[in-house]
Amino acid sequence: MWAARAARQLMRRFVTEEDGISTIEIILIIVVLIGLVIIFKSQLTSLVNSTLSRITSQAGSI
Asked: 9-58: per-residue pLDDT in tens?
């Protein structure tokens, strides 16, 4: 009887401790994203420029 009650308390404590994403995890995700932007800056810039020029050129034909 005592073991079942202890197991329920342990399970209840485990469920209440899991609050989702912590601050450290969010900071690590942001750091990785910033690093990827820095690494691929030239490729991203050329992709955005070509996309915007294509949109501009095709907008005149509408």
From this structure: 877 776 666 566 778 888 999 999 999 999 999 999 999 999 999 999 88
E-strand spans in the chain?
A: none
Q: If you ran DSSP here, which 8-state letter would residue 29 be given?
A: H
pTM: 0.50
Question: Using an 8 Å Cβ cutoff, are 44 and 37 in contact?
Answer: yes
- Establish how many alpha carbons lie within 13 A of residue 45's alpha carbon, considering only the half-sphere containing its beta carbon: 5
Give me the helix-helix angle, 23-39 and 41-59, nearest 10°: 70
Q: Which residues of 16-50 are buried (b: 16+ CB within 10 A; e: fewer)?
A: eeeeeeeeeeeeeeeeeeeeeeeeeeeeeeeeeee
